[in-house]
Design brief:
single chain; 173 residues; mainly alpha; 6 helices; 76% helix; TRAP transporter small permease protein; cell membrane; DctQ; transmembrane transporter activity; transmembrane helix
Length: 173
């Protein structure tokens, strides 16, 4: 009964966290599309010579792509692992899923820990065009890694060694 409660709470937190992350990604992608559109209009129609849209697009894309990792984890969307794991007997599925989760959790925590040092080092560096500190763009690595580690832990507690395909997972609309 206690495991069922942990599973339910982990699923609820994972769903809520993923809901927020997906909205942030959508806003970043909207800003990216508008920024690239502005860059194209500038270059081919108005010739304003704005030099910042390309750099801003790079930072927006990095943040959106790295944040999307946790959204993929929340839905267990990894085609290679899914196809391979589902073809195995249940006891082996559980073992492989546990090992993959453990390895990925270690990798994300490693990236988060060393990513914070990397981002702190960005305080001393300046973006060429914006003149701002590179800490904010560099912070995408530790923030996304920590978010992915938290989401992976929640999903592991939610699934408890079971691999549920995305289309069958609760709340994966």
């Amino acid at each position: 009964m206690a495991l069922r409660r942990v599973e339910t709470i982990a699923a609820m937190i994972s769903r809520s966290l993923n809901w927020v992350v997906e909205r942030v990604i959508a806003v970043l992608m909207l800003a990216l599309v508008l920024d690239v559109w502005l860059g194209v209009v500038d270059r081919y129609i108005f010739h304003w010579q704005m030099n910042w849209p390309e750099e801003l697009a790079r930072y927006l894309m990095i943040w959106a792509a790295l944040l999307a990792i946790s959204a993929g984890i929340a839905r267990r969307e990894h085609i290679g692992i899914g196809m391979f794991v589902l073809s195995l007997p249940m006891p082996i599925q559980r073992t492989i899923l546990f090992c993959v989760d453990l390895i990925a959790l270690g990798a994300f925590l490693y990236l988060a820990i060393y990513g914070f040092d990397f981002a702190a080092g960005g305080m001393r560096r300046q973006a060429m065009i914006f003149g701002m500190s590179l800490m904010l763009p560099y912070a995408a690595v530790p923030v996304a890694s920590l978010l992915a580690a938290v989401q992976l832990l929640l999903v592991a507690l939610r699934d408890q060694g079971r691999f549920v395909p995305v289309e069958l997972a609760e709340g994966a609309e």
